[in-house]
């Protein structure tokens, strides 16, 4: 089992909190870089949310 699989298993059921954490971390990076890499940070946030299931509603498909 890879490290990513272990993390996913540990975070399962806490998708909302994961999404909030990803948003908070991205906002911190944007603040520290004064928005210079905002597009890259946003892309990274989206991909992390997809990877960890934080882009899904509790009982539905991924949000658009």
UniProtKB/TrEMBL annotation:
A Pfam family the protein falls into: MT0933_antitox
Annotated region (Disordered), positions in chain: 15-64
Source organism superkingdom: Bacteria
Entry protein name: Kanamycin biosynthetic protein
Organism encoding this protein: Streptomyces griseus subsp. griseus (strain JCM 4626 / CBS 651.72 / NBRC 13350 / KCC S-0626 / ISP 5235)
